[in-house]
Amino acid sequence: MKTEKYHLKSESKFTRFEFISEGPKGAIRKLIEFQKTTNPEVFNLAFGDFNPQTQEIDDLSVSDNGDTEKVLATVVNAVYTFFNEYPDMFVYATGSTKSRTRLYRMGITRFYEEMKKDFYLYGQIGDEFVEFEIGTDYDGFLAQRRF
Known about the structure:
By secondary structure, the chain is α+β, with helices and mostly antiparallel strands. It has one domain. The protein is built from 3 helices and 9 strands; from the N terminus they run βββββαβααβββ. It has helices at about 70-85, 100-110, 110-120, and strands at about 10, 15-25, 25-35, 40-50, 55-60, 90-95, 120-125, 130, 140-145. Strands 1, 2, 3, 4, 5, 6, 7, 8 and 9 form a 9-stranded mixed sheet that branches. β4 (about 40-50) and β5 (about 55-60) form a beta hairpin. The two termini are about 20 Å apart.
């Protein structure tokens, strides 16, 4: 991917990443976690600002640091790194709000041509998953590494 991205730090299992967003609002610590779900083959992608009080991800904060494309490219980079370690897994993502889910759809659309070479991409409509199509609204997204 040719888009500029932030440097990622990861723990040894490659399921938790962090980076620093830099912009007009200052340096903002971001976290990405691939969390186990009730389905052992599916991990949930959690993303947001680091909350120093709870030591957890705040997925409702609005940083507005002017670096959305760089942040999304960094999250995509973490997805690639995760799949390098866990190639047989699926990654599910949805926004904490409808507008964030729309932002994720826009990010997938932005990197779609590159991503579709490496991933099977699905959009969630209700309880169903269908092949991702640009311009369609989804409730969530599912990715699987291509071999």
